[in-house]
Amino acid sequence: MNRQVALVIKAHALQGECPSWHEEKQLLYWIDVLGKQLHVYQPETDIDRIINLGKLVGCVVPGKSGNVVVALEGGFYSLELETEKLTYLIAPENHPSSHRFNDGKCDPVGRFLAGTMDKNEL
């Protein structure tokens, strides 16, 4: 099998991470941690929509109601993609302000699991 690798998005991300494919919508969600952005890439149109979140972002997963859930500084938030409205959901217990979320995914039953790290280790 002969496969080609090609640059699809010249995003100039400061720290691009955490790709998450939404099969039903055919969208790729990914984040720029230090740029404090969520990217929503639609391969069919080759459009990479950028949503500025204003906080360090650690990871993103598709939600059940057409939204996405993001782990930001200070906790988990639901993000309505059409309006870009962030709704605070919850913060982890004993989460020091010197830490940020870093990577996460949903487990087979739909629980969003995310790790943390010290911000000084960016």
Core attributes:
122 residues; mainly beta; Neuraminidase; four-stranded antiparallel β-sheet; 52% strand
SSE inventory with pairings:
Blueprint: E1 16-22, E2 27-32, E3 37-42, E4 47-52, E5 57-62, E6 68-72, E7 75-80, E8 85-90, E9 99-106, E10 112-118
Antiparallel strand pairs: 1-2, 2-3, 3-4, 5-6, 6-7, 7-8, 9-10
Structure overview:
With 122 residues, this protein is mostly beta strands. It has a single domain (16-121), classed as 6 Propeller (Neuraminidase). Helices cover 0% and strands 52% of the residues. It is built from no helices and 10 strands. The model has no long low-confidence stretch (mean pLDDT 90).
As an assembly, this protein is single chain
Q: Report the biggest beta sheet as strand number plus sense, adding barrel if it closes.
A: 4 strands, antiparallel
Pattern of helices and strands: EEEEEEEEEE
Structural class: mainly beta
| Number of domains as seen in the coordinates | 1
* Proportion in helices: under 10%
Work out the radius of gyration. 15 Å
| Portion in beta strands | over 45%
Task: Output the CATH topology.
Answer: Neuraminidase
List segments where confidence is low: pLDDT < 50 over at least 5 consecutive residues. none
What CATH architecture label applies?
6 Propeller
Could you give the count of β-strands?
Answer: 10
Large-scale geometry: globular
Distance between the termini: 38 Å
Across the major sheet, the strand order is 1-2-3-4
Average pLDDT, all residues: 90
Q: CATH superfamily assignment?
A: TolB, C-terminal domain
CATH class identity: Mainly Beta
Determine the number of helices (DSSP H or I, runs of at least 4 residues): 0
